[in-house]
Amino acid sequence: MRPIALSCGEPAGIGPEIAVAAWRALRADCPFVWIGDPGHLPTGTPVALLDTPGEAAQAAAEALPVLPLPFAAPTTPGQPDPRNAAGVIAAIERGVALVQSGDCSALCTAPIHKKALIDGAGFAYPGHTEFLAALAGRDRVVMMLASDQLRVVPATIHIALSDVPRTLTSALLRDTIEITATGLRTQFGIARPRIAVAGLNPHAGEGGAMGHEERDWIAPLLQEIQGDFTLTGPHPADTMFHAAARARYDAAVCMYHDQALIPIKTLDFDRGVNVTLGLPFIRTSPDHGTAFDIAGQGIAKPSSLIEALKMARDMANSV
């Protein structure tokens, strides 16, 4: 079994401790190899230092498999050190190289702290996902939030709500739908995906009474788009996420950040997984940040990381 590559993320955050907690919960059932500086792991962690990822499955029964990557400085929980920025970036790069070479089946990434990367290494990307896309040579990728209960894809993400109508173009929405469909088919093993598309306005515009985008271009675009998938919408967002509605689709494409993330975080706050679609490899990550305020206290929940590792395993098995 090829292991999952887990990049360490920001070592002053909760990444190291939840990686250990995830290993204790999963062990050989979902082998992964942690890429980072062993000195940043919680004291007393049983560690197996590996030369190659192929040793991870056997080592995972007794110790956390680690591909050691020396960092420039020790770490203090809750206090990011810019001197470690180059190491964080190198861990991501090594993880990508391992999945591209086939030595690992998927990449799971622990949260990073963008300011520390900028301060310490002049990090030039808006975030983790854009860096991965650049490493993979892809111009366009899509963020999916997924759990056992719901998969959602926001067409626009970290922008002001007032900017959504002009950012949301027919080309952007078409790309989002098509990348989502391809990802569901090739990475989730769904032969003919069912995709439901939310409207932008309340009641999906109600025929123009509450907004005109649905009538003027969203509905006509959905009728144009053809492929090996079933597409419905635009649907009123307030009726898309109850249990009976969710049973009718495999993923919901939403128009903006909160329209997508509020329902999944309400349904499954601790176990949501961030999946990047459009990359030439599988990438998952926990749906939370570095949590500096609780780092090193032993109270961080590993549930989202555990689900991210399990989803990466299941996606790899479905390919």
Automatic annotation (TrEMBL):
Gene3D superfamilies given in the database record: Isopropylmalate Dehydrogenase (3.40.718.10)
User: Which cofactors are required for activity?
Assistant: Zn(2+); Mg(2+); Co(2+)
Q: Which Pfam families match?
A: PdxA (PF04166)
Where, in this chain's numbering, is substrate bound? Answer: 128-129, 265, 274, 283
Q: Which InterPro entries match?
A: PdxA, PdxA_fam
Q: What is its EC number?
A: 1.1.1.262
Give the co-factor note.
Binds 1 divalent metal cation per subunit. Can use ions such as Zn(2+), Mg(2+) or Co(2+).
- Localization annotation: Cytoplasm
- TM segments? none
Q: Which family does it belong to?
A: Belongs to the PdxA family.
Quaternary context: Homodimer.
Instruction: State what protein this is by name.
Output: 4-hydroxythreonine-4-phosphate dehydrogenase
